[in-house]
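This part of the workshop introduces the protein records we will be handling. The question running through the whole workshop is how a given chain folds. To make this concrete, we reproduce a full record directly below:
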Amino acid sequence: MTVHDKFLALGTHYGKVYLLDVQGNITQKFDVSPVKINQISLDESGEHMGVCSEDGKVQVFGLYSGEEFHETFDCPIKIIAVHPHFVRSSCKQFVTGGKKLLLFERSWMNRWKSVVLHEGEGNIRSVKWRGHLIAWANNMGVKIFDIISKQRITNVPRDDISLRPDMYPCSLCWKDNVTLIIGWGTSVKICSVKERHASEMRDLPSRYVEIVSQFETEFYISGLAPLCDQLVVLSYVKEISEKTEREYCARPRLDIIQPLSETCEEISSDALTVRGFQENECRDYHLEYSEGESLFYIVSPRDVVVAKERDQDDHIDWLLEKKKYEEALMAAEISQKNIKRHKILDIGLAYINHLVERGDYDIAARKCQKILGKNAALWEYEVYKFKEIGQLKAISPYLPRGDPVLKPLIYEMILHEFLESDYEGFATLIREWPGDLYNNSVIVQAVRDHLKKDSQNKTLLKTLAELYTYDKNYGNALEIYLTLRHKDVFQLIHKHNLFSSIKDKIVLLMDFDSEKAVDMLLDNEDKISIKKVVEELEDRPELQHVYLHKLFKRDHHKGQRYHEKQISLYAEYDRPNLLPFLRDSTHCPLEKALEICQQRNFVEETVYLLSRMGNSRSALKMIMEELHDVDKAIEFAKEQDDGELWEDLILYSIDKPPFITGLLNNIGTHVDPILLIHRIKEGMEIPNLRDSLVKILQDYNLQILLREGCKKILVADSLSLLKKMHRTQMKGVLVDEENICESCLSPILPSDAAKPFSVVVFHCRHMFHKECLPMPSMGEMESYSVA
């Protein structure tokens, strides 16, 4: 048997040659001999065939032409090899092998002549021709012959001479034009044909052979073929039976190995099932290969097995068979341009089904995102599958929400599933899913039905508010948020401008968060007036006060109409801020405020109001009689800066030693202390009197020092200014021809400059001829300059 890229040629024991295509269909048949065909050879073009048979016949003929050569030998011819380029007229050569190796070559007269290339070392067992090199094997070893130089360039001896060469024949194959692979017994040698350097030639061939790799295998070699930088090896296997301990023939193996310098690495190994392998010997198996198609043909007496390099489709088949779906999907994605029999989607769907069958529902649902992509129909189909097995919840987080969008029924079906068993999950989906994915009114009704059974469920109420919001039913949403006291209520009002909806819900908002509510109401006075807010809070004065207080802080005049009301509110709910309010407000009625403060006995506020109304003496009296605070009384007298108040203060304090001490310590800078000291009764014991008198004296000395200092500063400043004025007045004044006499209105300077003249110039820049100016009395004369 021999192989070409386009077909394979198979010889039979009955002298027939069949041409088969790669599918095994017979395309041509030739009757060559009545006996067994020993060898078939084809040239590279596939147009010429050489055949040798057991009866010694050798034929070389054209498959598509009438060209033909016949020769009969007196012994069986085992081997034939046609020149690879036999189609060329210059390459009409072939070799045959029996007892000797003969080279046949057509001469110029179309005659064929033969030359013995080798003999005397037993039968020729194998021949392979590549380019200008012929390699053959006999009983002793392997030889290579160079057609160009007509020289044999090497002899590679056989390693294991104990093996019968007829039972364990040599396997030869050319990897390329200069690399020969030899397999014999259990030994493999890789030989490289190299050019010899000119200086080394002498009488030697121009080429030599170097063994670049040599190693042993575990089994006997029946055939070899190259596969890129690896080798395909057909091995004959013998094993020992465990029961009988006898050796028997096992199935042949097809191995892929990686040659190394002195060993090899097994890449893959497959045992082949062929008919009758138990009776076969090593010589019964052959390995042929087609370089163009990367096809390998294993020939046994009863079968021809075709092997080809696994592609990604084969790899995916194997992964699917082993239920390694994830790896199969990854392999398909990586090689999607190269796979032909598989589709990524089909593998993905099979993977999802496998996960579902195994019970990995969450993983299966997650994989749907990647596998189903934007195919809405497949998404809907898978959702229904998950519904059938009761796992809608598993797929819900992964459903598409934008591109694509599934039918509303799909989303509603999942929402109903959660609503029946998981309120929190239902609420999560409502928050995450856009409202246009489903029929909002249907879901709203479903939630309301559930609230009939559990009306206080906060999760359902909050979710219903969100549904109302999406449905633009903001009034209902707001009411629910206020009931739940939800933090988003203010954001909802601002976002959707719901101020018209909250006019009757101001109390609820204030109860929920008075600070945020007041800020919102004050920021939107144009939408909800101050009057409306105050009216709504009429029944809740404490809230009314919070609102009006913040309004007053922002603007003292906006709520002036409510200042009278605020007096009572401050008095009731916020007394610490009453006095600041009374001080800052210019609109509150003082009589009303005084009445309220007197009713509630608010002394400080009453004192302030009395003083503001001009009744300072009553205010001072109240400080002294109600508060008994001399410091405050003194401070008040200082603020009013009224001599009569100081007199009243002294009269009230004259019989109260502690008050006298306070006055002595503070009165010195406002009232003459002698007035107070003269009124102190003799014999009255006054606490810290000595210290107080010392302080008065110190204050007095300080005043004297201050006055003297001020006097010195004043005198120095006066003198400095006087000097400055004198310097200014002593400066010259420019007089030119443009100036005129203010009396006669003629030019101030005479036309004849040589003539003497007199001019009077005042500091006000008025100028006169001296003769034009009437002489005033000395008492009335201004200062002037004469030029």
